[in-house]
Amino acid sequence: MGKHLITNRLLEKLIGASFSISIYYITTLIDTNFNLFEFHELITQPAIWMLFFGYGILSSLIIDDGIGRMIPRFNLGKQILFYILFGYLIFLFFLPLGYVLIAGTVGAFFSLLFLLGKKTLKPFKWYSWMAFIVPIVCLVMWPFDFTSKIGWNEVAEDGFVEIDYEFFNGEHLIPVHGKKGEKIYFDVEHTNISGANGMSLYDENGDYAGMNEEGGDIVSMDFEETTTKYIVVSTINGRYGKIQVTWWE
Fold it and tell me: With contact defined as beta carbons under 8 Å apart, do 114 and 51 qualify?
């Protein structure tokens, strides 16, 4: 196989991955009612990019350039069946069997979109490169924060933070300093007229940190070293709300 043909086939697969992930991101953006914070939370998940550009391209190589060469008369119908199969296959390793059918059906659908993009959007057609627009825009959005706050009033004391707001869409970080070996307990109370509320914990690098359920609404965090962790309170389209965060040893 010549260099030109190899390059062309790889570009076809990149276009297929870009086309399928573009449809995925566009549909989820519509599903969130164009909530940019929710959308940003989605596009910054590396697992999704790996699913489309890693597993998707690898599966396509196995099907087209491996299985397709071993099976006689490997026509479009057989190709479609294998793309559907590989759409289900990945979830068998990560999900309980009861969830595989749902997740696999979604995976099979986007696997077929991968195949559609690969077959119809050829690299030598200028409009095929438009498949890369959405992924590039999403990558450009990565460094930005789309949290929105209106009427925000925050009062902080030692071990206590109280926040009132008129509108809150996004997340807010509350720093908690701990020494090596300490265990700090905390409680979050969040009320509003409307909105979906959440709470999590970040380490000093902004990565998710583990929490311990202590019963009721009490949660704790362990400090393996002297550092700062962040209690993260989040709301989607919250209106006229109050957040109270209390922590203690």
Answer: no
From first CA to last CA, the distance across the chain in angstroms is 66
Q: Which helix (H) or strand (E) holds 177?
A: strand 160-178
Torsion of CA 167, 168, 169, 173, to 10 degrees: 170
Whether the Cβ atoms of residue 173 and residue 205 lie closer than 8 Å to each other: no
Residue 30 backbone dihedrals phi, psi, to 5 degrees:
-65, -40
How does pLDDT run across 84-98, given as a tens digit for each residue?
999 998 888 777 777
Tokens of 115: 């195949």
Q: Backbone phi, then psi, for 24, in 5-degree steps?
A: -60, -50
- Residue-wise over 118-154: b if at least 16 C-beta within 10 A, else e? beebeeeeeebeebeebbeebeeeeeeeebebeeeee
Q: Which two tokens stand for residue 54?
A: 């890693």
Q: Is the Cβ–Cβ distance between 229 and 176 less than 8 Å?
A: yes
- Phi first, then psi, for residue 122 (nearest 5°) are -80, 145
pLDDT digits (tens, 9 = 90+) for 149-188: 999 999 998 899 999 999 999 999 999 998 988 999 999 9
